[in-house]
Amino acid sequence: MNSETTYLTDLAAVLWPCGGLLGHGEFAGARLARRDRGSQYLPVPNARNPRIILPAHNRTAATRGIASFSQGHSLGERLRSLALTGAFATGLAPLLLRDRLYVGAGPGIENALASALDREVFVAIHLGPPRANRKPVLLLLAPSGRTIGYAKVATNGLTSRLVRAEARALRHLDESPLKDVTVPRLLHEGEWNGHPLLVQEALPVGDQTDRPTRHQLLRCVAQIVGLGTVRTRRLSESPYRRSLEERIAVLGTRPEAQPLREALRRLPDVRIPFGAWHGDLTRWNVASTSRRAFVWDWERLALDAPAGFDALHYDLNESVQAGVHPGVHRWLDSGSRLLRDPLMAETGLRPHTVSTVMALYLIDLATRFLADLQPEGDGSVTAVDDWLLPALDGLRIRAGHEAARVG
Prior knowledge:
It is a single chain. By secondary structure, the chain is an alpha+beta fold. It has helices spanning about 5-15, 30-35, 60-70, 75-90, 95, 110-115, 155-175, 215-225, 240-250, 255-265, 310-320, 325-340, 340-345, 355-375, 380-405, and strands at about 20-25, 40-45, 50-55, 100-105, 120-125, 135-140, 145-155, 180, 185-190, 195-200, 230-235, 270-275, 285-290, 295, 300-305. The strands form three sheets. It has a nine-stranded antiparallel β-sheet, sandwiched between helices. Strands 8-14-13 form a three-stranded mixed β-sheet. Strand 9 and strand 10 (about 195-200) form a beta hairpin. The relative contact order is 0.09.
């Protein structure tokens, strides 16, 4: 077993307390599952690299799960999803996908969801790549195949905090609707097997929506900034800076903490508008039409951050798709142009503060990344040293020059 198969069996113990057993093809566990009237699931593409878990003998749930979880992905990934959908539609998928997750009989996550929603529920599960905040996202389907909503189940301390935070965020958003941005309603909040659980409605995202254009993105970002009262303050006087300093302090003796602390200390003390940011606005969490944006995954919502963080986050994630180093180099220019757009000026952001805001974003991103990894002692923090700190150093110098020109 590798780390991924271990994760899969540990996850099965969370979702199905009756237990899960990995096997291959007509493994003996299949006989056990049949005898106990349990279920079979297919880890896709396999148990060593699971990204989706699909019900082996429910074609509708499997094909809907593939289509739903491929939204926003690359052309190549969508083509692979189409091939997999065809395999399920023809009944060939169980023959082509040999790995199995056998779940014994007894109450499982499906029972909890059916009870919470007072209706029969089938599920397909998205896992995503290994990372600190990884958690299962369950597509909930009615027997007819109609999408009911999505559920998230925490699996550790970090994801427990995130699931609870998203529930709070959705309640806040329900009380403070955005003019041109649709967010999912919270349908249920509770616990399953000792872990936080939330269920939210599915947004009407599909063939009629696409990735946002530049204008659509900035319109969405500006509206999110205005979720609360936007306040323009000097950086040194802002609660945001004090909070960021405290978060860096929590990193303790990590070698990256001191450069982050020093970079923050040396930024110019300019006046910046502070408002809300989604916290993880990427192509996987937003879709748009000409008139509306549809935004989900609100687990990182914060109400006091420099205006423009969401635009920078979206743009950075897009820029690095074809390679980190050239992507970051492009982002240093494209991110600056985004923040100088007239739509961002409406939030109160001024051109001579752009590089300061970009530097703050990188400090915030690095601090979040390191804090998320800290409990696991993960050694993959080289990404911070590899590109983020060098980019931050250049931005800090550029920020000083910008501020001096209007000083």
